[in-house]
Input
Amino acid sequence: DYSEYVIAHAKRYGYRGSSSPSLSGASQAELAKDQLIIVGDSNAAGIVYYGKYKGKLNYKRDYVTLKGWSERGKIYVDPKTREPLEPAIGAYRTGQVLEKLKKFYAFKGEDYKPSVAIVHMGYNDLGNAPTTGFNNIQKTVDFLRSKGVSDVRVIQTKGRNMKYDRNFQEHMKQLSDRLANELTGAKVIANNAKLSSDGVHFFGSYEK
Output
């Protein structure tokens, strides 16, 4: 169950519970010491909000369109510095996320060396998810491994048909199958999370 994995590793590599200092009081240097990086689209952003930085972010204030990072999309930012927290960007396709992931590493600098990565994306690639989406996820895994991330976890996709793509569910299943059978360099995690109340995202397990 990927949701259990996310919460366990969020506590281990960043979120330490309600007694932890507020994120708004953390310096960029302190944030750079995190050993967990979360990569992907809005489903990954849900892990940022409900997992790694649980209780430390305000959705309306901190999930924003940020120049140079999330044009036509949204990304979570540090409440104090307004700098990007993770390369998890809502509305972005896999190729766009990969591009920003590389920029994120350059932004963080040479001392940024996470050892664990959670990757969840592919939904915004729609009909190209089983092909281009898969290829970009593989490239994302390869890039993370080249940066010294020894434990890369990729969450499988799933979904229900959408009005803008009647075959969305099938596309997500095809991508999920390819991830399970063909992806190299990462452990693939089954997506057992509940569908959110918005009918799109898979972090309903965390909603109150």
Q: What stands out?
A: The beta strands are 36-40, 63-64, 74-77, 84-90, 116-120, 151-155, 187-189.
